[in-house]
Design brief:
two-stranded antiparallel ribbon, single chain, 3 helices, alpha+beta, two-stranded antiparallel sheet
């Protein structure tokens, strides 16, 4: 009976550890926005970037410009021509 209980407790603990590791983690930024870890924005490159996931950059045109981006007349983000931030 004790070994069965110990096995069930161990199985439940391993299940919880495995499933919690798969959940996305959230960081709360100072502005109160939430950002999912694992993604980043590289200056002068919009490859694979979804602006919705990076509001701290794309809600502020000055910050976006510091990364080398501008909002075009088509309301889409573009990279500044000949972008050299670093």
């Amino acid at each position: 009976m004790q070994s069965k209980t110990a096995f069930l407790v161990l199985a439940a603990a391993s299940f919880l550890a495995a499933t919690s590791a798969a959940w996305p983690r959230e960081d709360v930024l100072s502005e109160g926005n939430k950002e999912f870890r694992g993604g980043y924005v590289k200056a002068c490159s919009l490859d694979g970037v979804n602006p919705v996931h990076h509001p701290y950059i794309f809600r502020n045109p000055a910050v976006a410009r510091s990364f080398g981006f501008f909002l075009g007349p088509d309301r889409r983000w573009h990279v500044v021509p000949n972008c050299h931030i670093w």
